[in-house]
Specification:
alpha+beta, N-terminal domain of TfIIb, 74 residues, 2 helices
Length: 74
């Protein structure tokens, strides 16, 4: 499990947007890049080339599930 302290200092390496923890993934709050970074053995894999770009619908569903207003995502 990723600690709140670590999550507070991590950001998306591509867009510098905040990240949210969603299961074993960190999701970028950037609407343009919509990156998902996996977590393996409690270590976030923060390489852009190892990430996945989510579809707009999948990204929106995750963002809304976490109570984030999509209008606030840049």
């Amino acid at each position: 499990m990723i600690s709140k302290e670590l999550l507070d200092i991590l950001c998306c390496p591509e867009s510098r947007a905040d990240l949210i923890l969603d299961g074993n993934f960190l999701i970028s709050t950037d609407i343009k890049t919509r990156r998902r970074y996996r977590i393996e053995d409690n270590i976030p894999i923060m390489l852009i080339e190892e990430s996945e770009q989510l579809s707009m619908d999948a990204w929106k569903e995750i963002i809304m599930r976490h109570g984030i207003n999509i209008e606030d995502c840049k």
